[in-house]
Write a structure and sequence with these properties.
Number of helices: 6
Strand content: 25-35%
Shape: globular
Radius of gyration: 17 Å
Distance between the termini: 41 Å
Oligomer: single chain
Structural class: alpha/beta
Strand order of the largest sheet: 3-2-1-4-5
CATH topology of the largest domain: Rossmann fold
CATH architecture of the largest domain: 3-Layer(aba) Sandwich
Number of domains: 2
Helix content: 25-40%
Number of strands: 9
CATH superfamily of the largest domain: HUPs
Order of helices and strands: EHEHEHEHEHEHEEE
Length: 224
């Protein structure tokens, strides 16, 4: 039997977490969580979650986390992504799990890059309805909170809110993808059926950040 050894692309958010969980339930041996952090901020490239928080997630899940620093330049990011995956691939890895849902540009990028590396992409959430993904995430016992959101679409009152079916319906009524697949918001998973215990956010504050677009961001100052 061909052993399906895998690494999982990890952001600390609900989609990467659920995709990893489903892949493991489907027989994939996830040996590592692979996360890319900004060389400048030491935070996750897309979710902005600090390195130490994602390390705690990995400890509670019981799967080793590998973090690789990358630059903001997209061309260099692709090179650094390939380098990171290729290095782990040496450990008998033949699959990589992603949490993509419906963005064609993203899955085309994933398929092309994985083909270049010689690894098979696994997409457990692909083409599932976002509201169904939220339903499954909550029903399985996962807990996640919003840690950043685009200011023009969601106000600071959404920072810290728990992902649940009520919130998903509210977001859909606002014309926002319930999973934030278009980058409207990002999440942090704090508990789940594969966690040894819940992560507790002890001290935080919503702050407004400028950038490509204005967004509200949860500045987490203390957690355990």
């Amino acid at each position: 039997m061909n052993v399906k050894n895998a690494i999982a692309s990890w952001s600390g958010g609900k989609d990467s977490c659920l995709a990893c969980y489903k892949a493991m339930k489907n027989g994939y041996n996830v040996k590592y969580l692979l996360n890319f952090i900004s060389r400048e901020s030491r935070r996750g490239c897309f979710h902005g979650i600090e390195s130490a928080l994602m390390k705690l997630q990995a400890e509670l899940i019981g799967v080793p986390l590998v973090q690789k620093e990358v630059t903001a330049d997209m061309k260099k990011y692709e090179e650094e992504f390939k380098e990171g995956v290729t290095e782990l691939k040496k450990q008998d890895i033949n699959h990589m799990v992603f949490g993509d849902i419906f963005l064609l540009d993203q899955i085309n990028w994933v398929e092309r890059v994985c083909r270049d590396i010689g690894i098979t992409p696994v997409e457990p959430l692909w083409e599932n309805k976002p509201e169904n993904i939220v339903d499954e995430f909550v029903s399985l016992g996962f807990e996640a909170i919003i840690v950043s959101c685009q200011a023009e679409k969601l106000g600071k009152e959404f920072i810290g809110r728990t992902i649940d079916k009520t919130l998903a319906a509210e977001l859909k009524n606002r014309g926002v993808c319930p999973c934030g697949e278009n980058g409207e918001f990002h999440t942090l998973v704090v508990n789940g059926p594969n966690f040894k215990r819940k992560i507790r956010i002890c001290e935080s504050e919503p702050i407004l950040k400028e950038g490509f677009w204005k967004h509200w961001f949860m500045d987490i100052r203390k957690f355990e």
